[in-house]
Amino acid sequence: MNFKIRGATIDDLKGYSDLLQHVYEVAYSDDKLGLTKECFSREIFATKSTQDYLKSHLIDSSSQKTWVAVVDEKIIGTVTCIITSPTKAALTGFYVHPLFQGKGIGKKLYQLALEFSKKRDMFLDIYTHNLKTIDMYKRWGWQLDEAQGNKGYFFRHWDEWPKDLNAKCMYMKLTQI
Length: 177
Prior knowledge:
Layout: E1 4-7, H1 13-28, H2 42-45, H3 48-57, E2 64-71, E3 74-85, E4 88-96, H4 105-117, E5 121-127, H5 131-139, E6 143-144, E7 153-156, E8 167-174
Parallel strand pairs: 4-5
Antiparallel strand pairs: 1-2, 2-3, 3-4, 5-8, 6-8, 7-8
């Protein structure tokens, strides 16, 4: 399969948003938890607050970089690395469309983020019910970061969700030497 990886730009907002909306809907929906597909609908991803958040990831600077994997002009994967201090970096927005998973795209995106982090300790947060991805991170050396939050766990609520809906998340850390 032919794909290319390039730096993202603000012009990628629609394709970036479409990818994230689809992956969130597939990976994070869990009716038992109240996280229905409607919680990750196109309408929610189109709200000003969500679009502003997504736009903020497409800013290219010396402390932040987003890459996209593209097939036939369609964004099928992405990762963002943000340098947050001289010793820390955040990994965020790391997604590959389900139809393209298992083809090495995620590993190449991840490698770019690791290189950009310049050996800083890396941090991320993730929904705890996303067991497949948590297992992947653990295979790559990530661990629960108990120094963050309440022993490494917290609850996330999007303003667009029902008032009492909170999703359990965890902080993870990768110590790089």
